[in-house]
């Protein structure tokens, strides 16, 4: 049976999805969390890193962890332009929480260059992760970034990246590149049905969209 382990790096989450000894890492946290994430990954036979999208708080450690465990990094091709260049897909926000988060994030986003991993592979909607030892599939959920992806594990757990967030309560992602797309992606997550939802920010909940 697959288990999802939350690793908290300040206000950012990344997740180890493990089936016995085999595991994948979904997102990697920012640089301050590197040693903590490596220590957690060292408990497993790591097979793959999946980036829900390449913003620094999800992807800053990707290259280092990929090299440390000699594993590839999976990302949607649409978002590759975000490595080393946040401005390729500028963000907007909604609501007071969104304005605060965007204000804090923008300075770091603009000044942090997320190193592009050398072992990069491209994944798209519907791709299975069975080859990496985990019963999970990639779900395209654009809007926060244009190539954002989620990971649906055993039709029980859904790792949503920043398409949704739980800063105060579960909500549509407060930051977005394309608002129509992120709303459409929320409908897609709703259509998955009963799931535990794992956020890029905040603690897991049920599928609150139901
Ligand atoms: Zn983000």
Account of the protein in words:
The protein is α/β, with parallel strands linked by helices. It has a single domain, classed as Ribonuclease Z/Hydroxyacylglutathione hydrolase-like (Metallo-beta-lactamase, Chain A, 4-Layer Sandwich), CATH 3.60.15.10. It has helices at residues 34-41, 56-59, 62-69, 95-111, 179-191; strands at 2-9, 12-19, 22-26, 45-50, 73-75, 92-93, 120-122, 136-140, 149-153, 157-159, 164-165, 171-172, 175-176, 196-198, 205-206. The strands form four sheets. Strands 1-2-3-4-5-7 form a six-stranded mixed β-sheet. The protein has a five-stranded mixed β-sheet with strand order 8-9-10-14-15, with no helix packed on it. The chain is globular. The model has no long low-confidence stretch (mean pLDDT 96). Bound molecules: zinc ion (ZN). Zinc ion is lined by residues 53, 55, 58, 144, 162.
């Amino acid at each position: 049976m697959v288990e999802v382990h939350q690793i908290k790096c300040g206000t950012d989450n990344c997740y180890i999805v493990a089936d016995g000894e085999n595991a994948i890492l979904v997102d990697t946290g920012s640089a301050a969390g590197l040693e903590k994430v490596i220590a957690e990954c060292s408990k497993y036979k790591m097979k793959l890193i999946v980036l829900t999208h390449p913003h620094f708080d999800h992807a800053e450690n990707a290259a280092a962890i990929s090299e440390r465990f000699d594993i590839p990094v999976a990302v949607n091709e649409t978002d590759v332009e975000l490595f080393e260049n946040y401005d390729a897909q500028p963000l907007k926000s909604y609501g007071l929480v969104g304005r605060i988060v965007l204000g804090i994030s923008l300075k770091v986003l603009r000044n942090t260059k997320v190193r592009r991993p050398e072992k990069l592979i491209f994944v798209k909607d519907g791709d299975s992760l069975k080859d990496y030892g985990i019963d999970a599939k990639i779900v395209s959920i654009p809007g926060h970034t244009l190539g954002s992806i989620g990971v649906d594990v055993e039709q029980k757990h859904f790792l949503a990246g920043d398409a949704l967030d739980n800063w105060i309560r579960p909500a549509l992602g407060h930051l977005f590149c394309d608002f129509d797309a992120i709303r459409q992606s929320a409908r897609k997550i709703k259509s998955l049905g009963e799931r535990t939802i794992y956020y890029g920010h905040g603690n897991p909940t049920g599928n609150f969209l139901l």
